[in-house]
# Entry
Amino acid sequence: MACKTTSTSESGAVLAEAVIGLAVGAIVLGGMCAFSVFTGQNLATFYNFVDCGQNSRITINQMAKDFRMATSVTNIASNTVSMVLFDGSLVRYDFQATNATLVRAKGTATTTLLKDCNRFAFSMYSRNITNGTFDYYPSTNVLDCKAVQVIWCCSSKLPTRTVDDIPHSATFVLRN
# Structure
């Protein structure tokens, strides 16, 4: 039986190949980790946008229902509006800037419609449309109020930053 021996120059090549392989593997693994963190942050951002959008749609639907059933607006300011519904009940929407929430109150029941709302405003208009545009005339008297415009923007808090959602706006015309 013949015994084959290797020279020292051939045995060192395996160690160099292993070090290069480990370096390439570490670079690939680091890239995969960075990509997964980036993807996770983007998915969290998209989820928060979907959640804000869903809450905004629910809010618009509830406000549209209440404003269409309203017989009159009794009080309006930039952060609150109160109205009387056809059945005589009072509905109030309050934007609470300290909590960044929009709350709907009907009787003793209160519902939080929007959370993390950083901008919110009500404004009232008369029914007549301005000449040459589809805008309403601003109104200063609650008795002349026939349309209410609502504008808001919510934000999403992520671990690394806060992101504003797309501003939402709706104009509701009272049917009375």
About this structure: The longest strand covers residues 117-129. The mean pLDDT is 83. Residues 12-173 form one domain. The first helix runs from residue 8 to 69.
